[in-house]
Design a protein that fits this description.
- Helix content is about 75%, strand content about 15%.
- By secondary structure, the protein is of the alpha+beta class.
- A two-stranded antiparallel ribbon has the order 1-2.
- Strand 1 and strand 2 form a beta hairpin.
- The radius of gyration is 54 Å and the shape is rod-shaped.
- It starts with a helix and ends with a helix.
- The mean pLDDT is about 80.
Length: about 150
């Protein structure tokens, strides 16, 4: 579309109406002996004349400029796409790393909880053993006291 518009503009610029002007001077002698001079200018407009070589040359120049502009736009778009792709890849890597870090931390917390629960269970068993031993000792003492 741009090429067609620019081509039309170029053609209209190079399409020039050629005007041909002719001046005619007439001298008429009056009855009293004086001379009257009349100048007449005739303008003729010939059909539009277009130099096809110039039009083709201008069209080629316009096409070349349009191609250059199109290439620049394509290059800029490709660079923008490459930057977006690189940013997306970096973001994906960062999210994957963050997810892995969260998973690792969750595993650590789970292990810590498990270890804490095992230690608490062990402590409870030890406390229960000590408590049972004390109850047994107290029962032995009571039995001894009762047998006396």
């Amino acid at each position: 579309m741009k090429k067609q518009i620019l081509t039309a503009i170029v053609i209209s610029v190079f399409t020039v109406a050629c005007t041909k002007s002719t001046s005619k001077t007439e001298q008429v002698e009056n009855a009293d002996g004086s001379v009257t001079t009349t100048t007449t200018t005739v303008s003729e407009t010939s059909p539009h004349i277009v130099d096809s070589a110039k039009v083709n040359d201008a069209k080629e120049k316009v096409d070349a400029k349009l191609d250059q502009a199109g290439n620049k736009i394509d290059n800029a778009a490709q660079k923008a796409k490459d930057k977006i792709d690189a940013t997306a890849d970096k973001t994906k890597q960062d999210l994957n790393k963050a997810g892995q870090d969260i998973k690792n931390e969750a595993n650590k917390v789970g292990k810590d909880i498990k270890t804490g629960a095992q230690e608490a269970g062990k402590d409870a068993k030890d406390a229960a053993k000590k408590g049972a031993a004390k109850v047994e000792d107290a029962a032995k003492k009571l039995k001894e006291d009762l047998s006396k």
